[in-house]
């Protein structure tokens, strides 16, 4: 399983928890810098970070991966649309949450969100 990280670096503890929740080891973390130029349309910038992952069209459709989304919501939305276009499904994403009372602020892995399952379940409520 690959973890595509479009956000802040993840610690060994984060990766261990992700592997535990996924039920399989994380073979590779692909860190992708995701800094956008606010003076340019975001939609024309999203293909760059996704291409930086380095997957071929075949790998996008066959390689198991999880995604740690960037925290800027418009970029996260565009990223999900781009990934869906390349894979044909919505990915599973990592959700982090703040550790209560931590100083300095620390984060822990809360859950894995299977967006395709959420999408499929929503279809019956149309």
General description of the model:
Helices cover 37% and strands 21% of the residues. The chain is an alpha/beta fold and 126 residues long. The chain has one domain. A hairpin with an 8-residue loop joins strand 4 and strand 5. It is globular.
Task: Give a short summary of the structure.
By secondary structure, the chain is α/β, with parallel strands linked by helices. The protein is built from 5 helices and 5 strands; from the N terminus they run βαβααβαββα.
Radius of gyration: 15 Å
SSE string:
EHEHHEHEEH
Summarize the main sheet. Answer: 5 strands, mixed
Query: Termini, distance in Å?
Result: 33 Å
Q: What keyword list fits this structure?
A:
126 residues; 5-stranded mixed sheet; 21% strand
Write the layout of secondary structure elements.
Layout: E1 2-5, H1 12-22, E2 28-31, H2 47-52, H3 57-62, E3 65-68, H4 73-87, E4 92-98, E5 107-114, H5 115-123
Parallel strand pairs: 1-2, 1-3, 3-4
Antiparallel strand pairs: 4-5
